[in-house]
Amino acid sequence: MMQDDQVIVCEKLTKRFGDFVATDEITFEVHKGEIFGFLGANGAGKTTAMRMLCGLSAPTSGKATIAGFDVYTQTEQIKKNIGYMSQKFSLYENLTVLENIEFFGGIYGLSDQQIKDKTNELLDRLGLKSEAKKLVASLPLGWKQKLSFSVAVLHEPKIVFLDEPTGGVDPVTRRQFWDLIYEAANRGITVFVTTHYMDEAEYCNRISIMVDGKMEVLDTPANLKSQFGVRSMDEVFYQLARSAKRGD
Amino acid sequence: MEAIVVKNITKTYGKGKKTDGTLAVDNVSFTVGKGELFGLIGPDGAGKTSIFRMLTTLLVPDSGSATVDGHDIVSDFRQIRSTVGYMPGKFSLYQDLTIEENLNFFATVFGTTIEENYHLIRDIYVQIEPFKTRRAGKLSGGMKQKLALCCALIHKPTTLFLDEPTTGVDPVSRKEFWEMLKRLKAQDITIIVSTPYMDEAALCDRIALIQGGKILSIDTPQRIVQSYPEQLFAVKANEMYRLLQALENYPGILRSYAFGEYAHATFRDPDFKTDDLEAYLTGQGLTSVRIEAIEATIEDSFIKLLN
């Protein structure tokens, strides 16, 4: 792979809290347009690693660049070049669909005209035209999550970080959500996603699994299954996570 | 004898003069037998929590009726509160009390002691006992979950209500939690559990699939998958995204969607030939095409019911 194809590069990235090593020398890279699954048991160090990659928490040691920007010194540039959504934080419930799009478009520095164009395109694609003036609080969870994802990529970021985006979502909406992920990846947006659904692990180009702060494996789902001699990602995960010493 | 009998309960929130409000539970009826492990399976917003809150007497239904252990959920709420255990979806113990203090508190409120029913919680409690002087607010998610289960069990409830005990929990911890439930079931406790994870449905004696406040189907997991109306096929090819698009455009397709490393598909023609599909997919430029007839899972059944 060429160097400029890499949008995330980490080398021995580490975060300590006192004696506790939350993220322990993780080294990996993620390519443009890749769907990268970031898995691990509760407490394996995923959230800490993700916070560093998003420029929200300074590493203790190691190196990392996100979209070419350094996680120690260029955190503001990182934030402009990424999108983020999670199950917990997504949109402002007391703003309408339209107001949320305008608000986040403004935050991401889009012009009024860009926001207008993007808004129409987004409402069309999600079939949310008739709901545009409704409060986000009144939307079903699945719609909220789809809208939230679309808002996270409104500014066409290099990378979008998704923290358990489909938790609690019904099986049909969960699949529609993954359609959006595929579309974004096809446009060249790199998708960095955590999930507890092992069928979703199969939808990723490559999977990493964190155990006790370390990145224990990193490969395609097919290679991981053959390496562990099992038929499903569920079994791969089970074998690895069962060996964890750190309780969550 | 039935442990829980629910007859046509309905619950609406925020109903006012100008607004119809939100219909959370829509004319729901079901029964749970004594000692049964019964699952309410459905996504967020399906109405699971509202049903739990009505059965644990924390909410009054707009209409309909229900009994728990023969006690009416409205008129006999005191009896129900003293005999059931309830673990809400949101962590609701005292964050400023330690593990031990929380457990003691709940035992005392219910007029019992930890020692008296220790046999019920032993398997679970030994896992958190090393941290018994730690405040509940400082515990990890998994430990909070175990403590909450101990507190819900300490008065030896006849019926245990577990509202989404495994949401946001990783697959390994989820498996461990279901092992615990199986052991509790062996102690003759009726368990009603809700979950958004379809794979957990198979571990219940009977399940109700629920969406939008309505029960879509209610039966044993085996019978629900057996009643899947069409023959289901698993299809695999070198590229998932293109495979899904190709399947969607296949003339004889009824339903198709991603399912882990496979796409699942059903077809209109009962005499559907896999060779025809294989030729079509290969013609679309896909390679390594594999098609096999498979049995449906609960998730397939749920998807079918939602459509």
Overall description:
- The complex is a heterodimer of chains A (248) and B (307).
- Chain A has 248 residues and is an alpha/beta fold.
- Chain A has a domain at 92-156.
- Helices cover 37% and strands 26% of the residues of chain A.
- In chain A, α3 packs across α4 (112-126) and α8 (221-228) packs across α9.
- Chain A is globular.
- The two termini of chain A are 36 Å apart.
- Chain B is an alpha/beta fold and 307 residues long.
- Chain B contains 10 helices and 14 strands.
- Chain B has a 6-stranded mixed beta sheet with strand order 6-7-8-3-9-10, with helices on both faces.
- Chain B is globular and about 70 Å long.
- The model of chain B has no long low-confidence stretch (mean pLDDT 93).
- Tally of individual helices of chain B: 10
Strand order of the largest sheet of chain A: 6-7-8-3-9-10
Helix/strand structural class of chain A: alpha/beta
Mean pLDDT of chain B: 93
What spatial form of chain B do the alpha-carbon principal axes imply? globular
Spell out the helices and strands of chain B N to C.
EEEHEEHEHHHEHEEEHEHEEHEH
Q: Total helix count of chain A?
A: 9
User: Kindly state the mean pLDDT of chain A as a whole number?
Assistant: 92
